[in-house]
UniProtKB/TrEMBL annotation, chains A, B:
Gene Ontology cellular-component terms listed: cytoplasm
Protein name per Swiss-Prot or TrEMBL: Ornithine cyclodeaminase
Domain of life: Bacteria
Organism: Melghiribacillus thermohalophilus
NCBIfam families found in the cross-reference section: PRK08291.1
Family note: Belongs to the ornithine cyclodeaminase/mu-crystallin family.
Molecular-function annotations in GO: oxidoreductase activity
Length: 326, 326
């Protein structure tokens, strides 16, 4: 068994066309029924304000499958620790023998999540995007922006976050690597009005975007909600979309924006619902007209984890990185 | 983070009164509502005849909680590999930070499973046991016997297994460490007739013990069934027991003998059902009369894993064993 540390993983895995293409393949496997993906396992530790998610998926044709443990302990900053943590285990799909531990501390999740945002925009955003709007100013907001650069040329970025200092710091960081003007917006409404693509990347528990703000030619990727209590979109947005897509139907009906749509009674589990894999496999079409409103609900799938972890493993091994254990 | 290897773990964790007592505490926590234990996660990889289970539980008062990955790949012997594999991760319950990896290859599962058998016999077997019957001749059958020695003095062991050579080898091994006469029985029926305590420890998919064989003063621990398709007991045995106990109601209704009882329509989810933790906490009584027939259905819980993994971790750390990783 091999163990790999975050710094090595960060050297060999980046948000780029190769990883985005790998994530497209994972979605295709999911949609084609070439995946075994049980529901997310979750442990809530209320007394320490913590939550742990376990995701996994076996994808046919991949040597290894990933079991990912990711946690959020929201009192950690008081202890001087980051809230989030994560690691991936890789298990041989033919024998069950543990092959590797990727001590990525959530980095590979950041990459595969951003890559899904890029896949969403690739098939759903208008061809010409002038302004990208970002709601949120955390790490993932930045990764989403890097990923969007791989699939669309845009000139301007508008960002909104609740805490001024945090947003300003985020803008300073982004300016180093993103080739576009970056401005801070006054409100989420302002962001939506002035953008053709909007990505929400927050841990919000209530809708940040309202249905009234939608305009022709808008694409929204909502990637923040990955648990029952999280929500970024007014459920009315789901019914006003001309094309509504999600990463995984069953999971989004449990954990994503679709879950709130069900609760609000504006959609049903019987509704025709497009998955990202239907787009990547060519079975369904994404945006077909410039004026359409498109929405994508991402909850993050074990299939993406297995794809990115396999990619990382083979890159690391080919460079003789990592440490071998008994 | 620390990583511990199997040989070190085997040095410090044994089937003994200390570990059995630790497993009793875990059941008490479960029954008292001091545990968060999500349903078992399962990945079936049919094309390689493999299955992977993920179990976890947070127990209040324990520093760390365990996430256990265990697998069975039944074509492995053809490749010269053992079918089973397993490892445990220990995560800090206050911060979510990974604390340790126990590369135990299933050893701690063997110990905590045998310990549950001992807990079952402690509260349910008659005080005087002359003969213990074992159905099955795998590793776990042996561990169950070691564990029973800690809670009852018995003079004789009767074992039944399908493959003669395997049973004979098992008997030779057991004779080295078990202070009792060990004989091979002709049939499961023979075992039941001549024993006061019977433990079934097989991967059987159909009932091995029949209701007609029950006799006053018998205790049965059925520990083999931990998946929907596994079964060791004729469901009629469940209704003919004077005291019917399980390790975890919800899990046994899904995966254990109780599951087959539900399917056969002989029990319902509303039936009064005693959990092992009701016995260890003193809330309910086990056997109250010598002539009673008692049955215990074990599926193996994440709570046991968290208890045994904490115990192992503290023993290993106090001896400065293991390897520190970044």
């Amino acid at each position: 068994m091999n163990i790999f540390k975050q710094s090595d993983i960060q050297k060999v895995v980046k948000v780029n066309r190769e990883t985005i293409s790998g994530i497209e393949d994972a979605f295709t496997s999911l949609a084609n029924g070439n995946a075994v993906m049980p529901p997310v396992m979750r442990i809530d530790i209320e007394e320490y304000n913590g939550e742990v998610d376990i995701k996994t998926a076996y994808l046919k044709g991949y040597d290894l499958f990933c079991i990912k443990i990711s946690s959020g302990f929201f009192d950690n900053p008081k202890l001087g620790l980051p809230s989030g943590n994560g690691m991936m285990l890789l298990i041989c799909a033919k024998t069950g023998v543990p092959a590797a531990i990727l001590m990525d501390h959530g980095y590979l999740t950041d990459v595969r999540t951003a890559a899904a945002g890029a896949v969403s925009a690739k098939y759903l955003a208008p061809t010409d995007v002038h302004t990208v709007g970002i709601i949120g100013s955390g790490n993932q907001a930045g990764y989403q922006l890097y990923a969007l650069q791989q699939v669309r040329d845009f000139k301007k970025v508008l960002v909104y976050g609740r805490t001024n200092e945090r947003v300003e710091k985020w803008v300073r960081n982004m300016k180093k690597t993103v080739h576009a003007d970056i401005d801070i917006a006054e409100s989420p409404k302002d962001v939506v009005h002035r953008s053709q693509v909007v990505v929400t990347a927050t841990p919000s528990k209530e809708p940040l975007l309202q249905q009234e703000w939608l305009h022709p030619g808008l694409h929204i990727t909502a990637m923040g909600s990955d648990a029952e209590h999280k929500q970024e979109l007014d459920p009315g947005i789901l019914t006003h979309a001309d094309v509504l897509v999600c990463d995984h139907k069953e999971q989004c009906f449990r954990l994503g924006e679709l879950h709130h749509g069900l609760e609000a009674g504006v959609i049903t589990q019987e509704d025709d619902m497009i998955e990202l894999g239907d787009l990547t496999s060519g079975v369904r079409k994404g945006r077909t007209e410039d004026g359409q409103i498109t929405v994508c609900d991402l909850t993050g799938t074990g299939a993406q984890d297995t794809a990115i972890a396999n990619f990382a493993y083979h890159e690391l091994r080919s460079r003789n990185m990592g440490m071998k254990l008994d």
